[in-house]
Amino acid sequence: MAGFTPPPYPYDRLAPLQQLATAVPGGLVDLSIGTPCDPPPPEAMAALADPAATRSYPPSIGTAAYRAAAAGWLERRFGASVGVEQLAACVGTKELVAGIPQWLRLRTPDRDTVLYPAISYPTYAMGATLAGCRAVPVPVDDGWRIRLDAIEESDAERALCLWVNTPGNPAGGLDDLAAAAAWGRERNVPVLSDECYAEFTWDGPPRTILQHGTSGVLAVHSLSKRSNFAGARAGFYAGDPELVRYLSEVRKHAGFMVPGPVQAAGAVAWADDAHVAQQAARYRERLELLVRAFGAYGLDARLPGGAFYLWVPAPDGDAWELARQLAEVGGALVSPGEFYGPDGAGHVRVAAVQPLDRIELLAERLGA
After folding, report:
1. CATH entry, 10-30+275-367, from 3.90.1150.10, 3.50.50.60, 3.40.50.300, 3.90.1180.10
2. H helices of the chain, where?
3. Cβ atoms < 10 Å from Cβ of 112
4. Were both Cys, which of 70, 78, 133, 254 would link to 128 (CB 3.0–4.6 Å)?
């Protein structure tokens, strides 16, 4: 019997398009991966140099300062009161997303299914695969919101967890988090709410599932997007106290630890909101320029409900052909929607992660 063979990493498949885009005079405008291009807060960078945080092993659950700063941010930003015993650090959030099905299956071995939005961040499905679980996509509606009513009860009975993502990657949809929390509690299924783009919510205020209680739910947050701290790998999960306790103990045994200097810097970043407001303004300006640029090129580009991506339909349904045109004509590298599930195959995702002058260059090329 053949063992597991990892599939090609999605973004590695863009190499031929990257060559096309790089050949355009003025060079590549890389809008494919959601990697921040702007600086992290200088106060956080200064905290990285603290030698005291380097000498000792950091607590896996997070330092008192890191956890207090994260809990303070939840209260300040969302009005969600969470005790520090209901919150723990994680190494960014991708490792948590990929690993949590394994740990939940150890806790509940008679369940084997991970539910996740049909158009979404690919690591939800990959986490299920790596745990030897069933990855079951849940349809989304025409506003790119998860359709809880479409979940088969037979799948719910086997579910280890349900992932929701608000604002959503790639399409920026805003799920009904109160309904998701209620759905999970009624069926004893943990609801895991990936909220890493919450600071960049354009349609209404930012939201968290923790506004609807902590029983049976976890909110997952990251400094990668909020504070341009993707390379530092710092996030947290918070919510149901028993679930947080279980996960933090498992992770302690496995040696998952956010480095001490990163925790010191992260505590500074979670405590400051001014740099985030500046970043939100940058993303909003870039998104609006991209909407105009793609509109002038004849594409139906619209501002999302949240996050910093445009989810653009290919006029003839061929996303790879649209990606090729954008590379050849505009020097832009974008992501075909199939990276985010088969249901996304007719769209491309465009990440507003280049400085304004590069996006202006793209707009000029497309306009020409």
Report:
1. 3.90.1150.10
2. 15-22, 42-47, 52-55, 64-78, 94-107, 123-130, 153-157, 177-187, 223-226, 241-254, 260-270, 274-296, 319-330, 356-367
3. 16
4. 133
Helix (H, G, I), strand (E, B) or coil at 218: strand
Give dist(CA 313, CA 119) in Å, integer.
14
pLDDT in tens, 214-269: 999 999 999 999 999 999 999 999 999 999 999 999 999 999 999 999 999 999 99
For domain 42-270, say whether CATH 3.40.366.10 is its number.
no
Separation CA 133–CA 353 (nearest Å): 34
Cα separation, 198 vs 226, in Å, equals: 8
| CB neighbours of residue 212 within 10 Å | 20
Residue 267 contacts residue 63 (beta carbons within 8 Å):
yes
What is the signed CA dihedral for 289, 311, 210, 60, rounded to 10 degrees? -90
Nearest to 156 by CA among 109, 110, 107, 111: 111
